[in-house]
UniProtKB/TrEMBL annotation:
Chemical reaction(s) catalysed: ATP + protein L-histidine = ADP + protein N-phospho-L-histidine
Span of domain Histidine kinase: 404-621
InterPro entries the UniProt entry points to: GAF-like_dom_sf, HATPase_C_sf, HATPase_dom, His_kinase_dom, HisK_dim/P_dom, HisK_dim/P_sf, PAC, PAS
Lineage: Bacteria, Pseudomonadati, Thermodesulfobacteriota, Desulfovibrionia, Desulfovibrionales
Domain of life: Bacteria
UniProt-recorded name of the protein: histidine kinase
Organism annotation: Desulfovibrio sp. U5L
Residue ranges that the Swiss-Prot or TrEMBL entry lists as coiled coil: 356-390
PROSITE patterns per UniProt: HIS_KIN, PAC, PAS
């Protein structure tokens, strides 16, 4: 036994383990040094990565080494050694394709990479697992034992590594900052080949590779950006020359006079139109020579405004006269705009002068025509006002005539009615059949005359009556109007349905006339079936102005829609007196009352399909 208590065999095994560890460290140091040497070389990226893969396989002794590199959204194998062609074919892509042929996506819309390689690249491993490092690498010394202990892991793996018999496996991300360039993959069918020291060394190699790839990528991007910038500068220079040539061609083609000045206002170029109009030469016009074609009276104001634009960099807009080659001054609209550099400084001025003499002439003619039109309009308004006064006077006279005539007819009519009643009561036995028939006709005619006189009085009083407007419940007014017609409702067997109606500012007495006439018509003009009348309403709002719309609909005989306006005219009847009694004044009263309320009334109907009268009134007459 040794003094320390260890046997000779134990000491030999310890020495062997230390020698193996030293050899591993030496190989790892050689791997890291070799990798750094390759990175410092001027080799292409492809040659660099090929050499690194071969170096890793040689220094670690692993049977298979692969390097995946980003290609779009996928990470296929870029370089391998020891992996079979069939294995590479099965494992090359990490992006599973859906039924539509596109890669599967995660919740953020990114590609969902498959298998353990995909989880390492996308950082989706659980760092609390014993086979996951803080750097995010995955290493296993026995895939068989791991799956036996954790069979649920198979659900997240393709299984080709295990199916190929690989036991020792490591997946090292090639990551710099937040950018993952690819992945190192080591596989071997032997067990127990990994140590924490080896994994840490491989992670260091991966870090150096990631840094080198990032540097090379940045250099390449900078080179491409420089080349692109050089190309764009060349193209811009060429385009600028072509643009200037095109600009001068265009400036010479436009009908306006045009010119270009330096930032200080010094004019160095005029188009051909300028020289044609002014009859001057380039030598005469260069610099400030343009002042010689200006009206001396207007020149001080032009100079003051032009100097202000030069000082502030603001556009110039002014109308002033320019002298032509014929010696005549014509008005021109002059506009000058600054051309700015990238920092907003004025580098040039571009000006145009547009001859507006024809426009001025047309404006003068237009003003004269407007004055004539205004005079004609005023005269027309005077005539309209005069006609309106005449019409109002005639309407007043007509209404007064109706009123007076109605009153004057009352007295002789009462005598006819009184004497007719006496004949019927006191001399009925003295009258033969013909006499009784004549008496009956006389009394019927007198009754119709009385009804007509009453309607004429109502019609004339619509405008002459007192203005008694107040806010009222239209539903209550309609119900009272319907109660006044109870006898007619009972005689016809009618049904009158009155829905909830809004309120409005109205003359209650006159509004009862409106609904009595509308309901009376609905009850009167019915066919074989009993009348069915429905009264409904709603409140409408238009630009803050509220109106009520009341509808009175029936199932009566209706009328031809051609007469929808005629029915509101006085004494207009669509049916004979023998078929339906009436004077033809009722709907005329309706329209007159509604118009007095600043409202409207319309009718809708078809023969045999009933009629519908719509009354629209302002809720507030002052609105």
């Amino acid at each position: 036994m040794h003094d320390g208590g260890k046997s000779r065999d134990e000491l030999l095994r310890e020495v062997g383990r230390l020698r193996q560890e030293l050899a591993g460290r030496a190989a790892l140091d050689s791997l890291i040094a070799g990798t750094l040497g390759l990175i410092k070389s001027e080799d292409s990226t492809r040659d660099l990565l090929r050499a690194v893969v071969i170096l890793i396989a040689r220094e670690t002794g692993f049977a298979a080494v692969g390097l995946r590199l980003r290609e779009g959204e996928d990470f296929p194998y870029f370089m391998t050694t020891g992996l079979s062609e069939e294995f590479i074919r099965l494992e090359n892509s990490l992006c599973p394709k859906g039924g539509h042929g596109q890669p599967a996506r995660d919740g953020d819309g990114g590609p969902l990479l498959e298998c353990a390689c995909g989880m390492v690249i996308q950082g989706r491993l659980d760092h609390s697992e014993p086979f996951v490092t803080d750097y995010g690498s995955l290493w296993v010394n026995s895939n068989t034992d791991l799956i036996a202990e954790r069979p649920e892991l198979l659900e997240r793996l393709r299984g080709n590594c295990i199916g190929s018999g690989y036991e020792s496996s490591a997946l090292i991300p090639i990551r710099f900052g937040t950018t993952t360039h690819g992945l190192l993959q080591l596989e071997d069918r032997r067990r127990g080949l990994f140590t924490l020291q080896l994994v840490a060394g491989l992670e260091l190699v991966a870090r150096h590779l990631a840094l080198a790839l990032s540097q090379r990528q940045a250099v390449e991007e900078l080179r491409l950006a420089g080349a692109d910038l050089e190309r764009r500068v060349s193209e811009r220079t060429k385009a600028l020359g072509e643009s200037e040539a095109k600009f001068r061609v265009m400036a010479n083609a436009i009908p306006q006079l045009a010119w270009i000045a330096q930032a200080d206002g010094y004019i160095f170029w005029y188009n051909d139109r300028w020289y044609e109009y002014t009859g001057t030469t380039p030598e005469q016009m260069e610099g400030w020579g343009w002042q010689r074609v200006h009206d001396p009276a207007a020149l001080p104001a032009v100079m003051a405004k032009w100097q202000a634009s030069i000082a502030t960099g603001k556009p110039f807009d002014m109308v002033f006269p320019l002298r032509g080659a014929d010696g005549l001054f014509r008005p021109f609209l002059t506009r000058i705009n600054p051309l700015l550099d990238s920092e907003g400084r004025v580098v040039q001025w571009f000006g145009t002068n547009t001859d507006i003499s024809e426009q001025k002439r047309m404006e003068s003619e237009l003003r004269q025509r407007e004055e004539q039109l205004q005079q004609s309009h005023n005269a027309l308004e005077d005539r309209v006002r005069e006609r309106t006064r005449e019409l109002a006077s005639r309407n007043a006279e007509l209404e007064n005539f109706f009123y007076i005539t109605s009153h004057d007819l009352q007295e002789p009519l009462r005598k006819v009615q009184v004497f007719g009643e006496r004949l019927r009561l006191e001399y009925a036995e003295a009258l033969d059949a013909a006499g009784k028939d004549y008496l009956k006709r006389m009394e019927g005619a007198a009754a119709r005359m009385q009804s007509l006189i009453n309607d004429l009085l109502d019609y004339s009083q619509v405008a002459t009556g007192a203005n008694v407007f107040a806010y009222a419940d239209l539903g209550e007014i309609v119900r009272q109007s319907a109660e006044d017609l109870d006898r007619l409702v009972e005689m016809t067997g009618a049904t009158v349905a009155i829905e909830a109606l809004p309120g409005a500012e109205v003359d209650v007495v006159q509004m009862r006339q409106v609904f009595q006439n509308l309901l009376s018509n609905a009850l009167k003009y019915h066919g074989r079936n009993p009348p069915e009348v429905r009264v409904s309403g709603e409140v409408l709002s238009d630009q803050g102005r509220e109106t009520v719309r009341i509808s009175v609909a029936d199932n009566g005989i209706g009328f031809d829609p051609r007469y929808k306006d005629k029915v509101f005219q006085p004494f207009q009847r669509l049916h004979g007196r023998n078929a339906y009694n009436g004077t033809g004044i009722g709907l005329a009263i309706v329209r007159k009352v509604v118009e007095r309320h600043k409202g409207t009334v319309t009718a809708e109907s078809e023969p045999g399909k009933g009629a519908r009268f719509i009354v629209t009134l302002p809720v507030n007459r002052q609105a």
